[in-house]
């Protein structure tokens, strides 16, 4: 082991010995030049990449910027072409609550979203658990059916489901939006299953030998280990309800007291004829929770999307 | 001697086949537990999928207004769809047009944004956040904002276009020729979630392939064409399938935007919109069910065609998902 590096050095010095000192200096200069031009090239590439990225960022961010800026303008200025509020109308954010029942819409949306999230989490963890952690007959068939229902267009079941709810006299009410979430979501089962499968079987085996019941095993061992995945489905479920428009359009429109932000915002113009600045104020408030949630949970989101290839 | 046997049975090498496997086999399958756990899904699929599908299939052959009993009319609904209902053809045409333009554009744009994100050595996470953010925005709010941005009188898009010398910029949502482009741009703005999948795909391509290619003297375009693109085909395939399914359910953005601008020429009238108006404005539940089933058949055929072609162009490094 020892003599090897020494030998190599000797060989190298032998190889260089027939070169004149000028030649060696020239080689060194060349390699320095090459090094410098590589650094120059890398620098140019970095500048190029970042300018493309900055340009794209401006495009992606511009609509959000406009919402904020216009939401702070007065009515007259919002319908000009200016892109900076003068004067700043912070009062818009107070006025919007008196102009339309904004607080009520927010609370309705929040209620539907929170209940929907609870429903999805509570009803999707157990199926995902038995689909990934236990061996049983028909397991794969069941999983394929679940994947199939994910692809099924909602329009095919929409009308009979609407009729069921109308026969139960649940229209208009929050029930048609909340109750189905307690019957599992195929997407959430799929996401959780992907994650549960990655937890080593040895953990369960050890607990089973110690006499742990399956239910305890699920609640005490697997669920705590799968917190990131559960957080991801909870987030997707919450956002799904918060951003939902079609469900509330079917089931809530008839009763103004039940309107959610989506429905309310869409009807905004009908209630008070075009007030662009107020419309943007309301939009900004509608988006704000989603964006705040995103900043606090970016990692969970991106892992969730990557794990399944889809968003809720 | 005995001690070593005991030790050996606990050694990790033997764990699988030796000591623990019989114990695992002895455990009974807890079928009651499995049934209880699956029951939310099971009842869900019975009440909210299986029963409605059967009912809606039956209703597709009836005249049904939600109040009176469904009246059997045979193939009348399908006859009406094909030969009488001009709105059906209009909505189908609009939907196919939107899908044909927006799916390839979305794939290309998602690929491009993801690809530029893999480039910088530092700071890519801040760009990723900015690119992803719009996909979080509620569809209603996004559509509102875009009808403002595209407003011909005071919207910033036309202001920008005029600034760069476009004399008569389009009226966007107010012009039937341009309104669908407005929706396409709105869709591209919310590309973030698709982009993340592409980004994950790009980061999965082994670096050694690019190194080998650069040693062989491949140009950047060649390494994109012969390494990146083949390795990304599963992701492209996936977004193609979900894109087709999604186009036929495209509703909220078009509904909100057309409500904002009074879409008199029905340029933003899509298939899902047609089903909604037939069912919940005209209360023609039977005919709407027929429309929904045609939608299902069209999506199924499209998906099957894409599945059939995948052998020719989709490259699975670790074996196919659908064998």
TrEMBL record, chain A:
One of its GO terms (biological process) is transmembrane transport. CDD domains: TM_PBP2. The keyword Nucleotide-binding does not apply. Its main location: membrane. Keywords: Cell membrane, Membrane, Transmembrane, Transmembrane helix, Transport. Residues 106-297 form the ABC transmembrane type-1 domain. The keyword Transport applies. It is found in: Cell membrane. One of its GO terms (cellular component) is plasma membrane. The chain crosses the membrane at residues 52-72, 109-131, 143-165, 177-196, 217-242, 278-296. SUPFAM superfamilies: MetI-like (SSF161098). It is a multi-pass membrane protein. Coiled coil: none annotated. This is Unannotated protein. It comes from freshwater metagenome.
TrEMBL record, chain B:
Gene3D superfamilies: MetI-like (1.10.3720.10). Keywords: Cell membrane, Membrane, Transmembrane, Transmembrane helix, Transport. One of its GO terms (cellular component) is plasma membrane. It is a multi-pass membrane protein. SUPFAM superfamilies: MetI-like. The keyword Phosphoprotein does not apply. GO terms for biological process: transmembrane transport. The chain crosses the membrane at residues 31-54, 96-118, 130-150, 181-205, 226-251, 287-307. Residues 92-306 form the ABC transmembrane type-1 domain. It is found in: Cell membrane. Its main location: membrane. This is Unannotated protein.
């Amino acid at each position: 082991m020892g003599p090897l590096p020494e030998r190599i050095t000797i060989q190298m010095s032998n190889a260089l010995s027939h070169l004149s000192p000028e030649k060696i200096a020239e080689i060194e200069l060349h390699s320095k030049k090459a090094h410098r031009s590589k650094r120059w090239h890398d620098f140019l590439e970095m500048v190029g990449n970042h300018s493309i990225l900055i340009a794209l960022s401006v495009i992606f961010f511009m609509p959000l910027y406009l919402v904020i800026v216009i939401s702070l303008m007065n009515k007259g200025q919002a319908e000009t072409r200016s892109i900076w509020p003068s004067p700043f109308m912070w009062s818009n954010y107070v006025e919007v609550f008196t102009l339309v029942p904004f607080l009520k819409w927010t609370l309705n949306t929040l209620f539907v979203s929170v209940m929907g999230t609870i429903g999805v989490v509570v009803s999707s963890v157990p199926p995902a658990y038995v689909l990934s952690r236990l061996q049983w007959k028909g397991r794969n068939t069941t999983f394929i059916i679940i994947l199939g229902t994910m692809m099924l267009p909602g329009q095919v079941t929409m009308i009979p489901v609407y009729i069921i709810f109308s026969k139960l006299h649940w229209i208009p009410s929050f029930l048609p939006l909340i109750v189905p979430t307690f019957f599992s979501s195929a997407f959430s089962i799929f996401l959780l299953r992907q994650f549960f499968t990655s937890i080593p079987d040895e953990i369960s085996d050890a607990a089973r030998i110690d006499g742990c019941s399956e239910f305890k095993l699920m609640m005490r061992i697997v669920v705590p280990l799968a917190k990131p995945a559960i957080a991801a489905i909870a987030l997707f479920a919450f956002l799904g309800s918060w951003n939902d428009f079609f469900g509330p359009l079917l089931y809530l429109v008839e009763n103004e007291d039940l309107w959610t932000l989506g429905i309310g915002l869409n009807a905004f113009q009908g209630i008070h004829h075009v007030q662009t600045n107020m419309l943007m104020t309301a939009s900004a408030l509608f988006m704000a929770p989603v964006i705040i949630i995103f900043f606090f949970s970016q990692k969970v989101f991106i892992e969730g999307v990557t794990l399944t290839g889809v968003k809720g | 001697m005995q001690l070593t046997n005991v030790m050996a049975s606990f050694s990790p090498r033997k764990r699988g086949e030796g000591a623990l496997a019989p114990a695992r086999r002895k455990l009974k399958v807890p079928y009651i537990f499995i049934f209880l756990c699956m029951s939310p899904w099971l009842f869900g699929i019975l009440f909210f999928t299986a029963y409605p599908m059967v009912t809606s299939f039956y209703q597709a052959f009836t005249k049904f207004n939600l109040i009176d009993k469904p009246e059997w009319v045979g193939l009348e609904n399908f006859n009406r769809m094909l030969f009488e209902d001009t709105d059906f053809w209009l909505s189908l045409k609009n939907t196919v047009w939107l899908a044909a333009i927006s799916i390839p554009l979305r794939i290309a744009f998602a690929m491009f944004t993801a690809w530029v994100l893999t480039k910088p050595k530092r700071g890519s996470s801040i760009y990723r956040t900015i690119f992803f953010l719009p996909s979080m925005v509620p569809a209603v709010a996004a559509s509102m904002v875009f009808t403002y941005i595209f407003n011909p009188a005071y919207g910033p898009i036309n202001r920008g276009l005029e600034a760069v010398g476009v004399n008569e910029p389009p009226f966007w949502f107010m012009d039937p020729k341009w309104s669908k482009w407005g929706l396409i741009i709105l869709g591209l703005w919310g590309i973030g979630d698709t982009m993340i999948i592409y980004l994950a795909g790009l980061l999965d391509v082994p670096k050694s392939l690019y190194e080998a290619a650069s040693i062989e003297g491949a140009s950047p375009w060649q390494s994109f064409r012969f390494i990146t693109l083949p390795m990304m085909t599963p992701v492209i395939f996936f977004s193609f399938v979900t894109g087709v399914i999604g186009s036929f359910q495209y509703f909220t953005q078009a509904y909100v935007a057309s409500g904002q601008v009074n879409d008199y020429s029905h340029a933003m009238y899509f298939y899902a919109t047609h089903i909604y108006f037939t069912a919940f404005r005209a209360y023609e539940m039977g005919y709407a069910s027929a429309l929904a089933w045609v939608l299902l058949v069209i999506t199924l055929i499209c998906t099957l065609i894409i599945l059939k072609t995948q052998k020719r162009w989709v490259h699975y490094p670790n074996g196919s998902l659908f064998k």
